[in-house]
Amino acid sequence: MLEGRVLEERLIRMQRQGEGYFWIGGPGEEAFNACVGLLMKQGQGLDYDYLHAHYRSSATLLALGAPSIDALRQMHNVKTDPYSQGRNFVGHFSKREWNVAPITSPIEVQFSIAIGTAHAQRRHGGEGITIVQGGDAGTAEGDFATCLVWSSRPNAELPILMIVTNNEWGISTHASTQHGEKNIADRGKAFGIRTAICDGNDVESAWFALEEAMRYVRNERRPFLLQANVSRLYGHSSSSGSNYVESETDCLNVLADKLAARGFRSPDETKRLREQIEASMRAWYEQVITEPKPDPEDAFDFVFADKNHVGGEA
Fold first, then answer.
1. Which of 15, 127, 186, 228 could link 20 by a cystine bridge, Cβ 3.0 to 4.6 Å?
2. Among 172, 56, 80, 161, which Cα is nearest to 114's?
3. pLDDT for position 3
4. Overall CATH class of domain 2-292
5. Is the pTM of this model over 0.85?
C-alpha cells in the first residue's frame, strides 16, 4: 500500500515536470486494490483468475509482483516499458502470464470484455474466476448493464466478480446528482446477483469482503457484485490539478493508526519505511529518464499478426 502511494506521487511529479504527458491513477484506493492482487489466484490460463482492471489499479499490479519501475517507464514512454514499449500512457497495464487483460482508456468496456473470459471459465470448470473492476461513474455505461445481464442468465450464470470502486465522483460530477439508487450494489439484486458493500478505505473490511466474494464465485460458479467505497485523494487526473484532497479519508492513515494502536509498527517506523521507499523510487526514476525512447520505425510492431512484426508466420 505504501509503495503504491509513493509510486503515484512520483508519477504525478513526473507529469508536472513534463516527463509524462498525462497522469491518472488510484491514490486512495491502495487498501482495497492491494487486497485484490493478494487474493487473486495468480497464473496463466483458465485454471487461474482473469483480471479486467481499470487505470486506477496500480496497487493491484504491485501486489501481484509488478515492479514500480515499470509504471515509471510507462509514464515516461520509454522503449523499456514492458506493457506497451512506450506507446500507451500510465496505468494501462497488461500481463499475459498473470491473466491481466489490457487496461483500456474507454470507460467501462472491460465489463463487456470480461464476459468472454468468464464464459470460457464456465465451460472449462475448475476454480478460476473472472474479476472485473471499474468506477462508480462508469456504471452509467451500457457495458456495466451488459455484464449484469450476461452473467446472470438462467442456467448459464458466469463465475465473475464485478467490483465497483465508488469514490462518488465522475471527473467533476458528484454521484449525488447522478444516481437514483441508494447503493450501486443494489442494481445487482434485480438480476438475482448476490451483492455486498465494504469500506474500501479499511484494509480489514476490504480483505474479508473480497475473500468472501471470491469464495462464493469460485464455489458456486455464479456472479457477485461488490461495491467498495473509497477516496479520491488527488482528484480525477492531472487534468483536474492532481492536488491532495484534505477532506477525504486516507486509507494509509487508517492502517497506520491501527498498526500503531496494536503495537505492530510505530509512527516513526512507518515514516522511516516511507523514506526508504521514496529513496528507491527516486533511484528508479533517475534510471528511467536515461532509458531510450521508442524508434519511429517500430510504430507498427505488435499491431499486425504477421511475420514482419511479431517474429512468426501469419
1. 15
2. 161
3. 98
4. alpha beta
5. yes
